[in-house]
Amino acid sequence: MEVKVGIGDYAVAKKTGIISTYGLGSCVGITLYDRLNRVGGLLHALLPESARYGGRGNPAKYVDTGLELLIKDMMKLGASPRRLEAKLFGGAHMFTNVSNENLMVGKKNVEVAKRELKKRGIRLVAEDTGGKGGRTIYLDVSTGKVRMRKVSNGKVIEAVF
Fold this sequence. Notes:
The protein has one domain (2-160): CATH 3.30.1330.200. The strands form 2 sheets. Strands 1-3-8-9-10 form a 5-stranded mixed β-sheet, with no helix packed on it. By secondary structure, it is α+β, with helices and mostly antiparallel strands. It starts with a strand and ends with a strand. The protein contains 2 helices and 10 strands, in the order βββββαβαββββ. GO terms for molecular function: protein-glutamine glutaminase activity. It is an enzyme of class 3 (hydrolase). This is Probable chemoreceptor glutamine deamidase CheD. It comes from Thermococcus kodakarensis (strain ATCC BAA-918 / JCM 12380 / KOD1).
């Protein structure tokens, strides 16, 4: 069974299934996985920090508060925060004519994701971030592997992390 995660959303599962998200541009997709209990989760975050944007609306649309929700729901399924491994995708620079640091949301999303993972003691084991193209990712909850598809310079690239 495949669960599709939209922008500003997340999903968790135990032992089986695929959790996917499409269209990661400047957004980031963060997968977390507990190998021992085979609990996985995926967050598709739109913006870096809730406080920076007034904390309005859905907390899952922000990297910092969305990650907190993801971890809590994974713990309900038996995951241990000490065993979580993270993989990070997205954070593309979608608007090449923008050079203002404050408007480079993709770069900031990646920075905040790494900071929040480190703050929680979660090891980042793989990433594919930056660039100018979108990505689609699929987390296989039975193995923890993430399959990624992206378009770069007109070519479709697939990789497994």
